[in-house]
Structures are given as structure tokens and as C-alpha cells.
Write a structure and sequence with these properties.
By secondary structure, the chain is of the alpha+beta class. About 15% of the residues lie in helices and about 45% in strands. The strands form nine sheets. A five-stranded mixed β-sheet has the order 2-28-27-26-25, with no helix packed on it.
């Protein structure tokens, strides 16, 4: 018996096949968009020049200043006991000073020298558990531990750091999960290329285990074997908050995290900033900023003239799950711009301060920063932030 053909049935099968293919394509496309939020615009894109008009602003009011007649050259700030105290180094006298959160001077320790509790070089501070304050002397390669007790700063003990040639300890962190350190290593002496590693350290601050690698700072060559950080080159910025170690690069808004307790890693981009192409006005400010080093090393003029992009950020601080990113400012304007991110909610705010501050720190809802004044003096300003609108 002859079989009859059903042309409509064939068309229905073909249409169903096309529908399946189209549906699969759309699903794959949606999945691809979900994995690439930048392409869909789900991550906001801002310009540094228009932050005031695109982000909700937080008001910041100066409410005090660190007061001490012999506090000459503040250089590094560190909250202690959750912000109850603020410790600062004095690079003029090589001392460590302790203030309460309102700026009242409480105690000081240290001084020039090589003896116990004395310092010879730039000092990095870290507040550890049990009311201990650790001061890393970058010249002596020595860690000094002080005890903070009832507003007093008392010398406790010292640790000498022995590292392999070509490596330098930049920061230490004493936590309930062990000791950790950021170590810089030279990769190529002829170019100055370097990398940073976060290391696990033992009880005597000797490196025991590399945990992960971070990019090194971009360099400028002074001679065949001498290099310094590029004034506006890419730099790596980091901070510790609780069990999380954070780092970013100066030219990128991605926040990288490493958990000291579990080893978990993650990264997140709360917003994106467009590249900062240099303008003639920026270049004028930049050349003025670099004038001193170009006078000493004329060969650097070509390096500075070839700059096409400016950094996005100059500082990065994390405190109580709130991130503060200071916008790089090449001009002499008495102004500091900060992007504030609440990590838990993802809320992003803008802070515009009528002061030129550096070494920003946070504690108990206050901001602290070292102000460079026109007469060359330096002072630590205390600022109160208004609560963000609900």
C-alpha cells in the first residue's frame, strides 16, 4: 500500500527543531551574560571626574586634630583596640606615639638608635591581639613589640628578621590564625621587576610558606642597576581586616581577598572606573610633582613625558567590612576624594574632603588622615562621617 506524505507534519518537526535551537541559544547567551557582568552593564561604570554627580555623597566634618608639642613628623597611622586608640609613627624623631580616638596624646616610645625599643628607619605599625602593637623598622629589619595598657605604651621584646638576599619584609600581621608577612622579591635586577608574596611566618617571624603572589610596583630606572617606584605607575595596595587580607592595584577597581583562616580566595568588583587618560592640565601637575627627582635624574624626563594614564587610587584601607579607596590626586588642590564601599550591602558612596590628606585610616566611625600644610607642617586630622542615608 502506498504511504501518503504529510508535508505539514514535516514542517512542524522543522519548526520544533528551530524552536529548540533558538531556546538553547538564548539560555546559553543568558548564562554567558551572567558570568560576564561587565558586558551587560550590571557593574556601574564611573569616571573619576564625575564622581560627585554619579555617587551619593557622605559629608565629612573635621572634628579634631592630634595634639602634642613634640609630635613632629607623623608618617604612619594604625587603629588599636578597634579604634579606641590610634598609634602613629614620628619619622622626625623615630618614635611611636599613642593617642585616644579624639586626638589626646597619651604616651610615646622609641627614639633614634639601635638599642631595644629604638629605631633607625621608616616604621610600619600593626596592632595585634592581646593589646600588642608591632613596629617594623625597615632599615634595621627588626620588629619591636609594645604593650598597650591603660593608655601606656611599654616596650616588650624585639625580633630580628633574616631574609634571603633580594627580599624585603614590608608588613607583618599577627592574628589568631598565625603570623603573616608581605615580602617583596626582586625578579630581574636589570629592570627592577619585582613581585610581592603573602607568606606564613613562624612565631619568630621567619618565613615558612608562600601563600600567593601579587604584582610588584612598576619601576623607573635611575641607572642600569638602580630603580625606584614609578610616580604614577601601577602599584599594589593591601590591607588586613579580621581574617581577610585584601589587595587591589592602583589602576583597577577589582577587590581581591584571601582568608587567613581557611585559605579561601575571592574577588569582587562593586563598580568600575574608566581609565584616566592624562590631560594637558594633568601633565603639568605631574611634571611639577616629579620636578625634584627629574632635577637629580634628568633621564627620567622622557619617562614622565611618555605617561598616558594616571592611577585611579593612591591608598586603600579596610576597617569593619568597609573599604576606603582614595582617588589619586596629582594636583596641589587642597582636596581628598574617597570612594567608600560597604562590603556586606555593596553600597558605594563618595566623600569629598576639603583637605589634602594621606595615610587614611578609620576607626569607630571616624576617619583619620595626615594633612600636608602649605607651610610644610604636618598634622593628623580627625573627621566625622555622617551616617549614609537609609
Amino acid at each position: 500500500m502506498e504511504k501518503t506524505r504529510n508535508p505539514q507534519g514535516g514542517e512542524q518537526i522543522f519548526h520544533r527543531f528551530c524552536l529548540i535551537v533558538l531556546t538553547a541559544t538564548l539560555l546559553l547567551s543568558c548564562n554567558g551574560e551572567k558570568g560576564s557582568p561587565d558586558e551587560t552593564g550590571s557593574i556601574p561604570l564611573y569616571s573619576v571626574d564625575h564622581l560627585a554627580s554619579t555617587l551619593p555623597e557622605l559629608a565629612a566634618e573635621p572634628v579634631g586634630i592630634f595634639d602634642s608639642p613634640d609630635f613632629m613628623g607623623p608618617y604612619y597611622l594604625e587603629p588599636v583596640s578597634g579604634g579606641r586608640y590610634i598609634a602613629s609613627t614620628d619619622r622626625t624623631e623615630n618614635q611611636v606615639h599613642l593617642f585616644d580616638e579624639t586626638g589626646t596624646h597619651l604616651a610615646k616610645a622609641g627614639g633614634n638608635g639601635r638599642g631595644p625599643g629604638e629605631f633607625m628607619g621608616a616604621i610600619q605599625l600593626h596592632a595585634g591581639p592581646n593589646q600588642y602593637l608591632y613596629a617594623l623598622d625597615l632599615r634595621l629589619h627588626r620588629i619591636t613589640r609594645f604593650r598597650v595598657h591603660q593608655g601606656e605604651l611599654m616596650y616588650d621584646t624585639s625580633f630580628y628578621v633574616n631574609l634571603e638576599p633580594g627580599t624585603w619584609l614590608h608588613n607583618i600581621y599577627v592574628t589568631p590564625w598565625g603570623n603573616f608577612g608581605v615580602i617583596r622579591s626582586i625578579v630581574d635586577y636589570s629592570s627592577g621587576e619585582e613581585v610581592y608574596h603573602l607568606y606564613k611566618l613562624d612565631a619568630s617571624f621567619i618565613q615558612t610558606e608562600p601563600l600567593f603572589e601579587m604584582p610588584g610596583n612598576e619601576k623607573m630606572s635611575l641607572s642600569e642597576w638602580s630603580h625606584v617606584d614609578h610616580i604614577v605607575g601601577q602599584k599594589t595596595l593591601w590591607d588586613l581586616d579580621g581574617e581577610w587580607f585584601y589587595y587591589i592595584t592602583s589602576h583597577n577597581a577589582t577587590i581581591n581577598r584571601y582568608n587567613l583562616r581557611t585559605g579561601e580566595t575571592s574577588f569582587e568588583t562593586f563598580f568600575d572606573l574608566a581609565e584616566r587618560e592624562i590631560t594637558p592640565e594633568n601633565r603639568g601637575h605631574l611634571m611639577e610633582l616629579a620636578s625634584n627627582i627629574m632635577t637629580r635624574f634628568p633621564s627620567l624626563r622622557k619617562t614622565m613625558e611618555s605617561v598616558t594614564l594616571l592611577p585611579l587610587f593612591s591608598e586603600f584601607v579596610v576597617h569593619d567590612n568597609i573599604l576606603y579607596l582614595t582617588i589619586f590626586n596629582p594636583s596641589k588642590d587642597e582636596r581628598t576624594e574617597i570612594i567608600r564601599i560597604e562590603e556586606e550591602t555593596g553600597n558605594v558612596h563618595y566623600i569629598d574632603l576639603p583637605l589634602k590628606l594621606w595615610r587614611i585610616q578609620a576607626g569607630n566611625g571616624l576617619l583619620y588622615g595626615i594633612e600636608n600644610r602649605e607651610n610644610g607642617d604636618e598634622a593628623v586630622q580627625i573627621l566625622n562621617l555622617e551616617d549614609p542615608p537609609i
